[in-house]
Structure to design on (341 residues):
């Protein structure tokens, strides 16, 4: 595959000539070639979201992954599971929760293991940002490619209304962005577009924070997590928005080059979700697989729906490794980035 990609790369240089935008064209060609090859192959867990804990120090009203258990695996078991996934074809691992920084020691040691022992291409973490510290990143930041911080509003009253903190969330977001810059980690922003923020204009703040990707999810209802029934801990109904409200939000922000919208359709079954016991989850169908610590990855994958076409369609494979130029990508310019230093 690499030879094929290399040939495609050289052909692109020959055809397009040496100019500024050639690297973008080549990246696109490589992406198309990789995508075509991936479609032909059997299902491989290329990019996995490992929700190592369901516990969280926040209480967002629409939470998609609620504190139904307080379990976490031991470091040894988690390492075994991650090694199994690597063997099955995993290239990127995203640590998620709950709030993964509630398990700081476990998180840090697993990040180190993924990079040093498994040599994964990319390790990322999704966090609400409130527990991220300089000391943690000083010790483990070298093993992290991407940090995604959740922020739904640039008005802290709105964040508090949602349950995203108690009124000081923006301090945490800005601190996390600055720490990412300090330690060469790509900074990403995640926003859940819901009834309380769909009307907001966030353009100025996006240019200030300069995320390299800004994921904007249409608030999603999942019966097993936030459906409001007996089996769920949340009722998302007061947060849901219509498709046209989501489109209005997207139209207001789509000129930001880091902007990546995901409507409900794009989200469902396009993520490979591994829960705190290392079972794959099909949240839409309310089923989970056996743990990959007990059965093979392929066997476990057969027990849930994971749509590889939707996975590829939502731009799930991208430049996901840390690099010195991380702050030069995405939104904003260097002058605005200096405001964070
Ligand atoms: S920060 Fe994330 S995990 Fe925690 S309550 Fe909010 S959405 Fe759920």
């Amino acid at each position: 595959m690499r030879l094929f990609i290399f040939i495609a790369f050289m052909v692109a240089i020959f055809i397009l000539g040496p100019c500024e935008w050639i690297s973008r064209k080549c990246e696109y060609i490589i992406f198309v070639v990789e995508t075509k090859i991936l479609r032909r192959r059997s299902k491989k867990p290329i990019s996995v979201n490992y929700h190592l804990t369901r516990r969280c120090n926040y209480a967002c009203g629409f939470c998609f992954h609620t504190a139904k258990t307080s379990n976490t695996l031991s470091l040894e078991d988690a390492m075994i599971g991650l090694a199994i996934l690597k063997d099955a074809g995993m290239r990127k691992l995203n640590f998620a929760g709950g709030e993964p920084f509630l398990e700081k020691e476990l998180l840090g040691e697993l990040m180190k293991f993924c990079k040093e022992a498994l040599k994964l291409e990319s390790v990322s973490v999704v966090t609400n940002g409130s527990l991220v510290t300089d000391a943690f990143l000083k010790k483990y930041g070298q093993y992290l490619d991407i940090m995604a911080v959740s922020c739904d509003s640039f008005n802290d009253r709105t964040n508090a209304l949602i349950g995203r903190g108690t009124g000081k969330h923006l301090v945490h977001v800005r601190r996390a962005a600055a720490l990412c810059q300090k330690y060469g980690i790509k900074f990403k922003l995640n926003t859940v577009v819901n009834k309380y923020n769909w009307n907001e204009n966030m353009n100025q703040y996006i240019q200030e924070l300069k995320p390299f990707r800004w994921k904007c999810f249409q608030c999603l209802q999942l019966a097993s997590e936030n459906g409001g029934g007996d089996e769920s801990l949340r009722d998302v109904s007061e947060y849901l928005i219509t498709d046209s409200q989501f489109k209005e939000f997207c139209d207001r922000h789509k000129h930001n080059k880091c902007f990546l919208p995901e409507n409900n359709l794009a989200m469902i079954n396009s993520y490979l979700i591994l829960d705190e016991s290392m079972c794959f989850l099909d949240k839409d169908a309310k089923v989970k697989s056996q743990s990959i610590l007990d059965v093979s990855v392929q066997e476990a994958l057969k027990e849930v729906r994971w749509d590889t076409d939707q996975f590829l369609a939502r731009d799930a494979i991208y430049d996901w490794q840390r690099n010195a130029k991380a702050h030069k990508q995405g939104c904003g310019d260097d002058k605005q980035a200096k405001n964070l230093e």
Remarks:
- The longest helix spans residues 22-40.
- The chain is about 40% helix and 15% strand.
- The beta strands are 47-51, 92-96, 122-127, 146-150, 186-193, 213-218, 259-262, 273-274, 279-282, 287-291.
